[in-house]
Specification:
There is one protein chain. The protein has 267 residues and is α/β, with parallel strands linked by helices. It has helices at residues 60-79, 93-103, 120-131, 206-213, 225-230, 249-262, and strands spanning 6-15, 18-28, 40-47, 54-59, 85-89, 110-114, 136-139, 150-153, 171-174, 193-197, 223-224, 240-244. The strands form two sheets. Strands 7-6-5-8-9-12-10-11 form an eight-stranded parallel beta sheet. Strands 1-2-3-4 form a four-stranded antiparallel beta sheet.
């Protein structure tokens, strides 16, 4: 319903005779009464490959936000032929991480942030300016967004907020429409843009689920991230590209694996 959702997201990745098992138990917290400021609540667990006991526990809010931001940046790297200017609508945790990782890419000169909560975009912009000094960050009202190369939507909007032609971006990244009552993209995009997704589960939620139900897109139309990694599309001018992320158990697993593999080993 319109109060959020609840998901159990298991995944096993097998390679070279070993396995990584993860499970994320997560909810969407729209009320934010008991836990203010966190749209995602819950925990993610890494399990022992053979004996299945929990070896590590992660805060789902930070894990999901960072993973989603990294996923958005990867989409920019693969899909945006030009990314000098990036606009981010939504300066919460997901918007912050999307801006942070975007600014870490080569070719990004400017990142602007906008948010419906007064002061939040400015706070995020000042923090990012200290963390990534080589990139220009600014805060502005949503309606003040000028022409940009990439637009990132990281909101909790219940209705579409981006209609064609948008701010002229070659790539629009939608991160916030991850449940049935949330929407960021106008259905008019369905017939005029190429669609890419973090995984096939994206068709079960938000904008893409609504478009599929209305017959605006085919089940096979969106290109999943793994296919995109194997066969990046040719760069150059063309139709607007949409990248939609609603959350992926596989990307959670890979992110947890990256964190654990980066841990200093005990001597």
């Amino acid at each position: 319903n319109d109060q959020g959702d609840f998901r159990v997201m298991p995944c096993i990745v097998r390679r070279a005779g070993c396995a990584r098992k993860t499970v994320k138990i997560v909810g969407t917290n729209l009320a934010q009464t008991v836990v203010p400021g966190q749209i995602t609540v819950g925990k993610a667990f890494a399990l022992h490959a053979e004996e299945n006991f929990v070896t590590h526990i992660f805060d789902a809010c930070l894990l999901s936000s960072a993973r989603t931001g990294a996923c958005a940046a990867l989409a920019m790297e693969l899909l945006a032929p030009c990314r000098r200017s990036v606009a981010v609508w939504g300066a919460g945790r997901v918007g912050y991480y999307a801006a942070f990782y975007a600014a870490s890419l080569k070719g990004v000169d400017r990142v602007s942030l906008a948010d419906s909560i007064p002061g939040r975009a400015g706070q995020a912009s000042r923090l990012l300016s200290r963390q990534v000094p080589g990139v220009e960050f600014s805060a502005q009202a949503l309606e003040e967004t000028g022409t940009c190369d990439v637009l990132v939507l990281a909101t909790t909007s219940a209705k579409p907020i981006c209609s064609p032609p948008g701010p002229g971006a070659c790539l629009i990244v939608s991160l916030g429409a991850d449940m049935d009552t949330q929407h960021e993209l106008d259905p008019a995009w369905a017939g005029i843009a190429d669609i890419f997704v973090d995984g096939e589960d994206c068709l079960r939620f938000g904008d893409l689920a609504a478009w599929l139900e209305r017959g605006l897109i085919e089940q096979s139309a969106p290109v999943p991230m793994l296919s995109l990694l194997r066969h990046p599309p040719a760069s150059g001018p063309g139709r607007t590209r949409l990248f939609v992320s609603t959350g992926s158990a596989l990307l959670d697993n890979l992110t947890i694996g990256y964190i654990l593999d980066s841990e200093p080993k005990a001597q």
